[in-house]
Amino acid sequence: MKRSKQTNGEIEARRRKAEEWRRIQAQRAAERQRLRDYKIALARDEVAVDTTRLAPSNSYSTPDFVLRGTYRPEPFICKDCGVAEVWTPLQQKWWYETAKGDVFTAAVRCRACRTRERARKSAARRVHLEGLARKKPPVS
Ligand SMILES: [Zn+2]
């Protein structure tokens, strides 16, 4: 009786172990599939670089996207809130070719933090300008 109970326990333990193993394998397969889909998306979503529109740079090195000839989605972690976001090829194209952003700069803040940072800077500028206006000597 005792022996059979132990065996049942062992069988149950083995069954649980096998179940757990299958669950982990399925999880890994899903993870691999996600990575594959992501890489496919990366390749598909690349946008051509127009080097004639880039801001001039004095650096002797060449940014990766110029060597590659395409902008690709760049995942990054927001330096303010730690959220993961993707800097899209079209956002990069706009930043480098229209806004003439330095070719060695990259996105560091998520959209929400960027908006907040812009508001903070403009508020700081306003306070600074108001302070200057107060300090101005009276016209004599
Ligand atoms: Zn953020």
General description of the model:
This protein has four helices and four strands. The chain has 140 residues and is mostly helical. The chain has one domain (2-135). Bound molecules: zinc ion. The site of zinc ion (ZN) has 8 residues, from helix 4.
What brief labels describe this structure?
two-stranded antiparallel ribbon, mainly alpha, 4 helices, 59% helix, 9% strand, 140 residues, two-stranded antiparallel sheet
SSE blueprint:
Blueprint: H1 2-44, E1 47-48, H2 64-68, E2 70-71, E3 74-77, E4 84-87, H3 89-98, H4 111-135
Antiparallel strand pairs: 1-2, 3-4
The chain binds zinc ion.
Q: How helix-rich are the residues, as a percent range?
A: 55-70%
Bound molecules: zinc ion
What is the residue-averaged pLDDT? Answer: 89
Could you spell the SSE succession in H and E letters?
HEHEEEHH
Provide the gyration radius in Å: 28 Å
Derived from helix and strand composition plus strand pairing, the structural class reads: mainly alpha
Largest sheet: 2 strands, antiparallel
Shape: elongated
The fraction of residues in strands falls at 5-15%
Cα end-to-end separation: 110 Å
| Lateral arrangement of strands in the main beta sheet | 1-2
Number of H/I helices: 4
Contiguous low-pLDDT stretches (5 residues minimum) are none
DSSP summary, beta strand count: 4
Number of domains: 1
How is this structure best summarized?
This protein is mostly helical and about 140 residues long. The protein has helices spanning about 1-45, 65-70, 90-100, 110-135, and strands at about 45-50, 70, 75, 85.
